[in-house]
Amino acid sequence: MGTINKQYIVDEHNRKIAVQIPIETFERIEEIIENYALVQLMKENEGEELLGVNEAKAYYDQLERAIPLRAPRSLLHSDSWINVY
Hints:
By secondary structure, the chain is an alpha+beta fold. It has one domain (7-75). The protein has two helices and two strands. The chain has helices at 23-44, 53-66, and strands spanning 7-10, 16-20. It has a two-stranded antiparallel ribbon. It is elongated and about 55 Å long. The two termini are 24 Å apart.
C-alpha cells in the first residue's frame, strides 16, 4: 500500500487528537480489513454445512428484513434511517 498521506489534527496543547486521510486511502484500508475479517470467518467455519446459492440468498433476505439498521439516538437529532452502502 505504500506511504499513507495523512494530516494530524491537534488540540490547543498541540497534542495529536485525530488523523485526516484521503477518502481513497480510507476506503482501501476498510476493504483490507473487511477481506481479512472474511478470511478469518471462513477459517473459523471450515467443515461447517454449506448452503446452496438459493438457500444462501433466502437466508440473507431473511436477515435484511429481520434486522433494520438504525443509528443510535445519541448520533442523530431525528428518527432518520441510516444509509448502508
